[in-house]
Each structure stands twice: as structure tokens, then as C-alpha cells.
């Protein structure tokens, strides 16, 4: 009988255990979890703190007793593993319930220890609360029940955004502090600013481009010398892999953290696997090692490792990092690389912005969607995408993520057959539309990006605004000349290199084609005035 020990009983570890039981009915499976709970919904913790999820028990998906009854799993909570003896194939742990030391022999070992919150050396940071497990959320709820007069959230990533929203749900004034000049690092600035706007509209004060240097008794001191009130302080500064056990056992660990594994999640010891947040994944765009702390990824890799242990010939595909966050009714989703990362890597890329309605505009309730696609010019391969909107961002990013996984090109998106009825989409879905733009660019149409425009105008290019006079009067790019698209074919054209723009890009495309008919090779301002304005706003 094969003996399998799993260290960590949350997403990846429990997925491994339950899948193992289904494919290896006779295996002896033991799960060691240092906390008091297993298989809890850690992604739901902010929403329980905010009162959106009202029942604490809803977070507790399984218990050791239930897992024993259904799957015959030996799940031991409050068991903290202290060392791994690879030569003897023994895991040593301490039972915090009884105080006893425990030795467990294994044939196969799975490390699923996850990641722990970053705690930089900021004086007073020990006062800050984090959200990693059920005990953390209990402490958070207890602090909120004392009705703090103010709160500071350190970090503007996914968890920071979720905590800011949920603290506002509890009626607490919130200041969010982020050392970068934008929230949501996986997004480019002209997309992230839409999330920032929504936060501010709902009472979250943003302090960007500064960091906490000290946490006081009732406030936080920032790097610019200011202090912000904070009866409650939440640290959401990111996570780091809990790879200490692996490192101490002599397993290969990446320089910046995380256990190195192959495409079956084996470590350099063939009897030991690592999955979830503790393991280094392989990036789908570059092939390099990358840390992707996502519950869905951990669950998928747990299932895969169970199949590998059972003798199945399966391998893990590279990761795309597909993710989504909500902020006061706004969805922000992404997949793959962003433009900032591509620029930093010196990687050639083509950028496309569109602003379609998420379903047919004539059907009630339609709302706008900001969609960004990043494409490799030479191959037309999809490198990444971002979507922000009231609805439909999840669907579009999921479709694009699937296309990336399937090796489809950006132009292929134009021909996808997607479900359509006016309350759900459009006859030309936003994914189809951005694929059409990709195909236009692939076949020679030129665009200019919002952050390139000022340089192009300084070089002497002429900017033609093809919107209506009413739109032009309501707000215009400095230096633009207004010639509505319907008048463009007969208008007297200025000499020089022409750049045209409309609100979102569609009329600009029509204008480019009309100008081509007159022998002028114009470029379209990608994403139009809406993208330009968002980009400029992100710089303020």
C-alpha cells in the first residue's frame, strides 16, 4: 500500500488528496495542516469580513471528519511539519493539540504549504492585520465589531482592493496606500485608472506613489511625511512562498523564492512534489519560471499531481495568470502579460484598445467595456489582455485565455462562434471586434498609442478629430482639428502626416479607409479619445 503524505490542507493539498482517493482507492493518504481548518474558502475571507458573506460556516467547505467519512482521508489539523528527512523518507511534525512529536513515513510527498503575507521591516507593522486563514478573518471581524473610526489598507493589489471595498461595506472610512503610481499592478495605467476612479467614487481615499514607513497607535506615517488616520490597519503587501521546509530539506529553490519543479511538479527529489503558491510555475508567454499565487491554479495542479502519482502520463501546461477582481460593481480581469512588462522585457508587441458595449446597445442595461489586447507583430500570437467594465469582463478574458491556451492567433478571434442574444452579447461580440482590429493591423493598417501621441504631434503630425462638432466641443485633445467623418471625403485636408481619432476607434477606422481612398496614409489613434483621456488621467 502506497503511503502518501501531503503537507498543507487547503486548495492544492486537498485537491491532491481527494483526487488521489478517486484514482488510488487503496492508498494511505495523510494530510498535515498546521492550522485549525482545512479546505476553507480563503478567497471568500474579505467578503465575510465585509458582511457580504453572512455565515462563517459557509467558508468551511470540509472538515476532517467529513473528509474521513467520504474519502477515507487521514486529515490532521494543528499538525505543523518541522522537517523532512529525505534519506529516511520521513516527515516530522508537532501536534499542537497534544504537544506530541509525530513521525510519518512516506513513499510520495506533496508540499502544498502555500504563501505567507509579506511583512517588510516597517516599525509598528505588527499591529496590522492580514488575511490568510480563518483565524485571520476572525481577528478582522472582531476588530470591525469594535467600530473603528478609520482604516488604512497597505497595498493596492487584488487583496488590497477587495479589503478596501469590504471595509467600506462596513461603513469604515478607508485610505488605500500603494507605493506604485497606480493600483492593480497586472493592469496597464489607462486600464487601472478605471478601477481607481471606482474606488474614489465609493469613498476610498487613494495615496499612490508613497509607502508606509511606520505604523503608529492610531495612524500610519507615509514616505512623503504625511500621516493618515488608521484605527485599523490591513497589510496587503503581497505574499511570498512558504518554501522553508523545502529549502531546509535540500530541495532546489528559486533565487526569489519558490520550489523549482518540472512539468509534472516533481522537485529535484523524484519522490517529492510541490504545488500551489509554494511552487514555481512556467510562464506561457516567456517559458520562464514565475510565481502565480492563485487558488484555481493550485487546485488544477493538485489534481494533476494526484494523476502523476497514480501513474498517469500527464503534464502541466504553462500558466497564463488569468485573474479577476471586483470593485464596487466593476469587474477588472486580465490574462498573460501587460504592456509594461513587454516594454521592460524589450519584447515587440502591438496594442489594441476597444470600448464596445458588453451586450447589444439597444437592449436595456447595456454598459461599456474597456478591452485591451497585446499581440506579437510577427506571429499574431496573443500575449495578453485586460478588460474592465460593469459586466462581461470575465467572459471576454476567459474566451481570450482559452484562445491563448489553444494557440489561436489574435486574428482568429474575429471568427469565433460565440453565444449571442441581445441581453448577453452582440452579433459581433467584443472578442470578435478586437479580433477584427487585430486582423486590420496584421494586414497593414497603422495605429498610434495614447502615450505616443504627444511625441508624434511634436514631430509635426496633424491630429484630425472625426467626431461630431458637439462631441468636439464637450472635450478635445489639444491641437486637434475637427472634421467629422461624414465630411472627410470632401474636406480640404491639411498637409503632413495625419493621425485621426474618434471616441473609441471605430469612426477612426472608417476615416483611415476614406483617407486611403484619397491617397493619404493616415494612422488611427488606438482606442480613440476615451483611451487617450484615461491614459492622461492616469498620469495626474
Topology:
Layout: E1 3-7, H1 11-23, E2 28-33, H2 45-49, H3 64-71, E3 74-77, E4 79-85, E5 90-95, E6 101-105, E7 108-111, E8 115-117, H4 134-145, E9 151-154, H5 158-169, E10 174-178, H6 189-201, E11 204-208, E12 212-215, E13 219-222, E14 227-229, E15 232-235, E16 239-241, H7 244-248, E17 272-274, E18 281-282, E19 289-290, H8 295-309, E20 323-327, E21 330-336, H9 339-344, E22 350-354, E23 369-375, E24 382-389, H10 393-406, H11 430-442, E25 447-448, H12 453-458, E26 462-465, H13 469-474, E27 481-482, E28 498-501, H14 506-517, E29 523-525, H15 528-538
Parallel strand pairs: 1-2, 1-7, 2-3, 7-17, 9-10, 9-15, 10-11, 25-29, 26-27, 26-28, 28-29
Antiparallel strand pairs: 4-5, 5-6, 8-16, 12-13, 13-14, 18-19, 20-21, 21-24, 22-23, 23-24
Helix pairs in contact: 1-8, 6-15
Q: What do these coordinates show?
A:
This protein is α/β, with parallel strands linked by helices and 540 residues long. It folds into four domains: 3-114 and 240-309, FAD/NAD(P)-binding domain, CATH 3.50.50; 125-199 and 210-233, FAD/NAD(P)-binding domain (3-Layer(bba) Sandwich); 329-442, FAD/NAD(P)-binding domain (3-Layer(bba) Sandwich); 447-538, Rhodanese-like domain (Oxidized Rhodanese, domain 1). The strands form eight sheets. A five-stranded parallel beta sheet has the order 3-2-1-7-17. The model has no long low-confidence stretch (mean pLDDT 94).
Amino acid at each position: 500500500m502506497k503511503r502518501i503524505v501531503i503537507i498543507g490542507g487547503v486548495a492544492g493539498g486537498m485537491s491532491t488528496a481527494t483526487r488521489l482517493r478517486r484514482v488510488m482507492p487503496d492508498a494511505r493518504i495523510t494530510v498535515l495542516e498546521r492550522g485549525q481548518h482545512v479546505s476553507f474558502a480563503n478567497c471568500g475571507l474579505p467578503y465575510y469580513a465585509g458582511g457580504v458573506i453572512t455565515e462563517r460556516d459557509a467558508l468551511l467547505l470540509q472538515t476532517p471528519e467529513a473528509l474521513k467519512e467520504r474519502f477515507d482521508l487521514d486529515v490532521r489539523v494543528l499538525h505543523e511539519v518541522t522537517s523532512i528527512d529525505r534519506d529516511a523518507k520521513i516527515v516530522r511534525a508537532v501536534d499542537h493539540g497534544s504537544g506530541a512529536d509525530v513521525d510519518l513515513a512516506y513513499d510520495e510527498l506533496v508540499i502544498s504549504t502555500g504563501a505567507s503575507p509579506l511583512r517588510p521591516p516597517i516599525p509598528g507593522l505588527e499591529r496590522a492585520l492580514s488575511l490568510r486563514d480563518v483565524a485571520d478573518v476572525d481577528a478582522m471581524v472582531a476588530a470591525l465589531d469594535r467600530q473603528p473610526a478609520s482604516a488604512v489598507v497597505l497595498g493596492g493589489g487584488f487583496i488590497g482592493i477587495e479589503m478596501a471595498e469590504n471595509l467600506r461595506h462596513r461603513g469604515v472610512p478607508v485610505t488605500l496606500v500603494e507605493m506604485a503610481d497606480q493600483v492593480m499592478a497586472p493592469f496597464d495605467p489607462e486600464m487601472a485608472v478605471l478601477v481607481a476612479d471606482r474606488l474614489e467614487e465609493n469613498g476610498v481615499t487613494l495615496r499612490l506613489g508613497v509607502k508606509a514607513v511606520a505604523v503608529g497607535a492610531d495612524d500610519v506615517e507615509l514616505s512623503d511625511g504625511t500621516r493618515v488616520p488608521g484605527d485599523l490597519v490591513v497589510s496587503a503587501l503581497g505574499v511570498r512562498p512558504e518554501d522553508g521546509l523545502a529549502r531546509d530539506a535540500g530541495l532546489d529553490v528559486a533565487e526569489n523564492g519558490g520550489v523549482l519543479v518540472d512539468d509534472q511538479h516533481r522537485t529535484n527529489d523524484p519522490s517529492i512534489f510541490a504545488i500551489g503558491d509554494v511552487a514555481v510555475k512556467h510562464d506561457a508567454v516567456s517559458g520562464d519560471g514565475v510565481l502565480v499565487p492563485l487558488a484555481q491554479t493550485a487546485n488544477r495542479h493538485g489534481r494533476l499531481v494526484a494523476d502523476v502519482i497514480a501513474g498517469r502520463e500527464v503534464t502541466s501546461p504553462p500558466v497564463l495568470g488569468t485573474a479577476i477582481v471586483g470593485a464596487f460593481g466593476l469587474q477588472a480581469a486580465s490574462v498573460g502579460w501587460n504592456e509594461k512588462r513587454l516594454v521592460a522585457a524589450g519584447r515587440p508587441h502591438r496594442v489594441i484598445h476597444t470600448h464596445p458595449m458588453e451586450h447589444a446597445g439597444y437592449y436595456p442595461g447595456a454598459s461599456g467595456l474597456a478591452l485591451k489586447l497585446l499581440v506579437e507583430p510577427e506571429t499574431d500570437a496573443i500575449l495578453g489582455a485586460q478588460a474592465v467594465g460593469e459586466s462581461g469582463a470575465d467572459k471576454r478574458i476567459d474566451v481570450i485565455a482559452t484562445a491563448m491556451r489553444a494557440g489561436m492567433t489574435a486574428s482568429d478571434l474575429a471568427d469565433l462562434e460565440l453565444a449571442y442574444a441581445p441581453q448577453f452579447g452582440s452579433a459581433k461580440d467584443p472578442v470578435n471586434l478586437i479580433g477584427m482590429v487585430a486582423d486590420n493591423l496584421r494586414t497593414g493598417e497603422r495605429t498610434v498609442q495614447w502615450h505616443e501621441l504627444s511625441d508624434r504631434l511634436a514631430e509635426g503630425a496633424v491630429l484630425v478629430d472625426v467626431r461630431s462638432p458637439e462631441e468636439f466641443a464637450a472635450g478635445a485633445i489639444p491641437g486637434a482639428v475637427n472634421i467629422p467623418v461624414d465630411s472627410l471625403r470632401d474636406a480640404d485636408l491639411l498637409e503632413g502626416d495625419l493621425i485621426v481619432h474618434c471616441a473609441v476607434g471605430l469612426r477612426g477606422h472608417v476615416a483611415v479607409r476614406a483617407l486611403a481612398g484619397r491617397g493619404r496614409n493616415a494612422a488611427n489613434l488606438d482606442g480613440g479619445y476615451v483611451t487617450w483621456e484615461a491614459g492622461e488621467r492616469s498620469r495626474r
